[in-house]
Amino acid sequence: MNDQTALITGASSGIGFELARCFARDDYRVVLVARHLDELKEAARLLHQEFGGVDIVLLPFDLSRPETPEQIYEETNKRGLQIDALVNDAGFGETGYFTDTDIGTELNMIQVNAASLVHLTKLYLRDMVERNYGRILQLGSIASFSPSPCQAVYAATKAFVLSFTEAIQHELKQQKSAVTMTILCPPPTDTNFFHVAHAEHTRAASHAVSAREVAEGGYDDMMEGEARSLPTVSAKFNFFSSLVLPDSMLATLMNTQLQSARR
After folding, report:
1. What is the pLDDT of residue 104?
2. Is 119 within the bounds of a domain?
3. Tens digit of each residue's pLDDT (9 = 90 or more) over 156-184
4. What integer is the mean pLDDT of 51-64?
5. Residue 232, CB-side half-sphere exposure with 13 Å CA sphere
6. Percentages of the chain per state (helix, strand, coil), in multiples of 5
7. Dihedral sign from CA coordinates of 108, 113, 114, 116
8. Residues ≥6 apart with Cβ < 8 Å to 238
9. Is 263 a member of any domain?
10. At 60, which CATH number?
11. Pick from 58, 83, 185: nearest CA to 135
């Protein structure tokens, strides 16, 4: 029996749930974090149904609130939980011209996608470095690699996550730490993301890959200590395109993906 614990944010559905499933399959205790308790309970029910006696802790917290990362950290400490693997999956997007989108939504997006990720990483990474053991998986995107018109703030948060993660990876090497950090950069994925982002009818949504395929690829790469996970052929294509194409062309290609699939 594995005595390790994984904490996954955004764990009630999509990639986060599928990552929790990977940990549960490998006998980790899983700490599931998401906003809605009813959705967390359903996720736990599905995990128990598939994996029997897996140990599950439910933490209903809203990461759009700046104080939430400290509250999560305090709660896990209070319960005596040592977090051996941290997955910062929580995030959402918004689609539309920047002049038309809602600033409140975008500021919440920055808080969830970037600020809370930094805060949770700060809190748990210190403990991992002190123990000289631990794994962290950060959720990036293919949007991390190029400008994305009509998803300007979302893509910027993912570019931030990429830059932040790569810098910390270098610091960990300088510190000669055994702790690893991996960034998962999936292509458009079949989750609730497109509904929340009002992008259900875009070309990207119509070609979305499965959340399970993305999660299993990311999980395997994290366990191998890889710096970057590009879990599908399309993710690899987008990454290598970003190395050879100018930003103006990449922006055009990204914008094309957000056009209606009904045209």
Report:
1. 98
2. yes
3. 999 999 999 999 999 999 999 999 999 99
4. 96
5. 19
6. 50, 15, 35
7. positive
8. 142, 145, 146, 187
9. no
10. 3.40.50.720
11. 83
Q: Residue 202: pLDDT above 80?
A: no
Task: Give the H or E element holding residue 136.
Answer: strand 135-139
Mean pLDDT, range 36-41, rounded to an integer: 98
Residue type, 51: F
Q: In 3D, which of 171, 160, 169 has the Cα closest to residue 226?
A: 169
pTM to 2 decimals? 0.87
In the block, residue with structure tokens 């809203």: 62
Query: What one-character DSSP code corresponds to residue 143?
Result: G
Select from 152, 147, 42 the least CA-distant residue to 97: 152
User: Mind listing the pLDDT tens digit for each residue in 63-105?
Assistant: 999 999 999 999 999 999 999 999 999 999 998 999 999 999 9
Rg (CA), the chain: 18
At which residue do the structure tokens 């919440």 appear? 108
Q: Tell whether 262 is covered by a domain.
A: no
Number of domains in the chain: 1
- The residue range of the domain holding 76 is 5-257
**Residue 79 main-chain phi, psi, to 5 deg:** -85, 0
